Amino acid sequence: MVNTAQARRLAHVPTPAWIVARMVAALAQWIDPQRPLRVLEPACADAPFLHAFRHRYGTHHLLEGVELCPAHRAEFPIHDADYLLWEPEGGEYDVILGNPPYGIVGDASHYPLFALKERKPLYKKRLRTWHGKYNLYGAFIERSVELLTQGGVLAFIVPASWLVLDDFRKLRTYLFERGSLRIEYVGRVFPRRNVSAVILYFQRGQKGVWLTDGRTETHYPEPLPEQMIRFEDETIRAWERSGTPLGEAFAIHFAARSPEFRRSGLTRPFPQAGDVPVLTGRNLHAGRIDYETCHSGWWMRHEDAPLLRPYYATPHLVVAHTKGSRLVCAYDERAYPWREEFHLIPHFQQDARRVEAYLNQPMVSQRLQAMYRDFVPHLTRTMLARVPL
Ligand SMILES: C[S@@+](CC[C@H](N)C(=O)[O-])C[C@H]1O[C@@H](n2cnc3c(N)ncnc32)[C@H](O)[C@@H]1O
After folding, report:
1. 99 CB less than 6 Å from ligand 1?
2. For ligand 1, atom 23: residue with the closest CA
3. How far does residue 99's CA lie from ligand 1's centre (Å)?
4. Mapped to the 3 state alphabet, what secondary structure does 259-282 carry?
5. Is the dihedral of CA 347, 353, 356, 362 positive or negative?
6. Burial of 150 by CB count in 10 Å (0-12 exposed, 13-18 middle, 19+ buried)?
7. Catalytic entry in 53, 57, 83, 102
8. With a 6 A CB cut-off, is 189 part of the ligand 1 pocket?
9. CATH 3.90.220.10 domain extents, the chain
10. Active site residue 102
11. CATH class for domain 4-231?
């Protein structure tokens, strides 16, 4: 049994029983349960998926788990191993299912998965989809695809972020090239966890991507390498074709972050004569900037701002990063220093006030919301770059 401390260290959140039941039931679309199947639950903890599988499809299957901290009394053979480094004996699996761990492997100060930190170089070497900070669940998906038979099926509940984040570009391409994906968006199904989830059903050797929320469905028969997976229809596609993508009209910069301000030696916690506050997303409203309130806790000389980012020196458009998939934009006519947020620097002469008014239209946010829901808690550069002007 995993104790609380270990669980926190290894990021254990149990899967709601109705999700387990639903995933196991859905497998009937792809498998022939009359035939004895080799079934694996990675990072299985108490193996809820193996129990549900046996209950629904019978006792004639070969059911196995892999777990870093195996339970004392297991009803199934559980391999005591790190799934990402483990080599199975006896061949591939017809079904791999479960709820892999989520989290970024890193420093204790930032990430809960520091226990695995020393293994990170090994993971990176072993996994070809590892990119950026990556996340353990992406690594678990890749590893599982490798362990599937042709026609074999993977069923995982994972965060929705891989559908759109750049860190998962390689993973998306990897999956598109190897099989078909049916993705059910289920949203915030984990109590008290701030994560929006999808169930991924992947069948090795097929083709195409389907994304559904039970009511609407987007089908990509021929997904392009790296492409984001989003809810889109003809209206959205026509809108995107209707104008120049924002990313072609503007360079999109991400402002200096807290550590840079801290290191710079240019800021202080109390204002001296002539200082201005370092602005944050809380100062940013649709069409309006609050230049007075200091939410960042830092003040600095106005003329020092360009030492951090040259573009702080000129008036320009600022777009909020952390207002969900809502687009909030304002023109910074005073050219203040900013902590975070997107800064749009035009590639050619433009009417910034007109762009500001257009981006703040409810229609723009509604379309972003329709496409990206709450897959991630913020607007990404890629999402912003595709907004047509
Ligand atoms: C069911 S999974 C994850 C559930 C949920 N998605 C989460 O992130 O909390 C949790 C289990 O994975 C195990 N685990 C974590 N990393 C592992 C790894 N690299 N290999 C095998 N098991 C692992 C932990 O010991 C824990 O029992």
Report:
1. yes
2. 43
3. 8
4. HHHHHHCCCECCCCCCEEECECHH
5. negative
6. exposed
7. 102
8. no
9. 241-385
10. yes
11. alpha beta
Strand runs (DSSP E) across the chain, as ranges? Answer: 38-42, 62-67, 78-80, 93-98, 148-159, 179-187, 197-204, 209-212, 217-220, 250-254, 275-277, 284-285, 288-289, 299-301, 316-319, 329-332, 342-346
Architecture in CATH for domain 241-385: Alpha-Beta Complex (3.90)
- Beta carbon of 171 within 6 Å of any ligand 1 atom: no
| Stretch(es) of the chain classified as CATH 3.40.50.150 | 4-231
Q: What is the pLDDT along the chain (389 residues), one digit of tens a residue?
A: 444 455 444 556 789 999 999 999 999 999 999 999 999 999 999 999 999 999 999 999 999 999 988 776 678 999 999 999 999 998 899 999 999 998 887 655 554 555 567 888 899 999 999 988 889 999 999 999 999 999 999 999 999 999 999 999 999 999 999 999 999 999 999 988 889 999 999 999 989 999 999 999 999 999 999 999 999 999 999 999 999 999 999 999 999 899 999 999 999 999 999 999 999 999 999 999 999 999 999 999 999 999 999 999 999 999 998 777 789 999 999 999 999 899 999 999 999 999 999 999 999 999 999 999 999 999 999 999 999 99
11 lines ligand 1 (CB under 6 A): yes
Other CB atoms within a 10 A radius of the CB of residue 129 amount to 21
Using the mean position of ligand 1's atoms as its centre, give its distance from the Cα of residue 6 in Å: 10
Choose which residue among 67, 189, 195 to substitute to test ligand 1 binding: the one with the highest number of ligand atoms within 8 A of its C-beta. Answer: 67
Ligand 1 nearest-atom number relative to CA 98: 1
190 is catalytic: yes
- Does ligand 1 have an atom closer than 6 angstroms to the CB of 13? yes
